[in-house]
Amino acid sequence: MAAEMGQQVRSGAFLLGPTAPELVFTPEDFTQEHHLIAQTTRAFVEGEIAPCQERLEHQDWDLTLQLLRKLGNLGLLAADVPEEYGGLGADKVASAVITENITWGGSFALTVGGHTGIGTLPIVYFGSEEQKRKYLPGLATGELVAAYALTEPGSGSDALSARTTARKTPDGKAFVLNGSKQFITNAAFADVFIVYAKIDGEQFSAFIVERGFPGVSTGPEEKKMGIKASSTRPLLLEDAVVPAENLLGEAGKGHVIAFNILNMGRHKLAVGCVGAMKAAMAESARYALTRRQFGKAIAEFPLIQQKLADMAIRCFVTESMCYRTTGDMDRQLAGLSAGADGSQVARGIAEYAMECSVNKVYASEALDEVVDEAVQIHGGYGFIQEYAVERMYRDSRINRIFEGTNEINRLLIPDMLLRKALRGELPLLSAAQALQQELMGMLPDPDLADPLGVEEHALAMAKKLFLLTGGLAVQTWQQALREEQEVLAALADQVMEVYALDSALLRTRKALTRGQPAEAMVDMVRVYARTALDRVVARAHEVLAALATGDELRTHLALVRKLTRHVLPVNTRQLKRAIAGRVLAAEGYRV
Fold it and tell me: What mean pLDDT do residues 447-452 have?
């Protein structure tokens, strides 16, 4: 299990120095149990979901509920629920494996994710003993379906400005809720809603609201661009009477539940994007092998191969990031899920909140690139609903909006890092100051005797570039940096590229150390290291140009050149053809 691996690695520490490969969880660490769970989930997708895809897309909710209960009978809804409440009490890796593989079934996966993730986890982590015993057994089997109701017509990203109110009845036995929630996944058939409201218009709090409570109803189904196999409706609360014992957690502490559950939601969303990428690659590889133009399969054309290679690299990197975070969270939450109070669990989840945001943004944008190329490989047929990539393209777009928009998450990433630095949890500022002295002397050369020496050097320089630009940004704007959103977004992009390359390199190092086949990993890391460093440099240029001009800017740019002078281009033509060859041989993603 991931929770049994080595010592804990602190959030954000990857920016300051190397991490030992053995401390990083990778898909190559899956146990036999994890592989069995993956096989069971994929078999369900292929046998139960795929044949019904058209009915699901046309919102056959009776079928949706039947499939949910079948999943429940297989235990695939119960991974995150402790055993004492009828669940599996599995590790986070098992939960992630289910999330990744159910995504092959299209937007039915959102129904599952809305139920098992943001719908059930608030009760798992923050529910009272009575609430857990009442609701979790049914949620684990699919007898009950959950939904999460945070967003309102006037409060999307600004969740704390919610207007839904809760007023305690004179006898103290209930709360009366009034307001409306918008874009609620599973609203058509959910039995249990996690609803956020302000007690007396002030104390932001969470409630467990049953569909059958007086005053609870839903509006009409939204007409959406994609994810049509999932229900999305408003939740209406008109003098809704909720028993006092259904207050979830403490009054006025709803934000603790909301934000930490969103962190988990971001993590699961990113893992789901990995599965969606793999599904798009499988469709693209099979199509490229069978579609013939100019007397040959289009798979033989180098530009098609280049697309497949780029898709594989994005998938490999994203998969490496997501399962690294999964392993870290497993260790952090081990022993806290059952019996720990909400504050302990909240701290455990919050430890990797920054990595959850990093993965969410990176994965959702990587998926968009992959499905876009999948449509392009299909040509005109990619625009036709008969082909799966048309649906994949539409379905992918929501991920950049779900669980906090990518813009909000880009602002959160540097903000969370600065908070850690100011609390003394991460020596970022001292590292940035030390770099100023280091740059006055000679920088180390790459270790050319190491097959990945240049890539390791590129990673080390990318970290220094972030410290350089981030340190100068803090020095220039100080507290006003919070208002410089363009600069914060550029710094967030640097952090994401560092985490992406670091994760892919560590996974490759770990495989090599174990003597596992790693030729494909090495090829992908060699390509990605250059593109990642290029993007970090580009963002450094943006930040430096925003904070300096003239000779000062030229001095800063000279430091950027000094940090990157030893990283030369590689023959990506040759490497990408080799990567694409493996994709075509496997008819999909393989490492």
Answer: 92
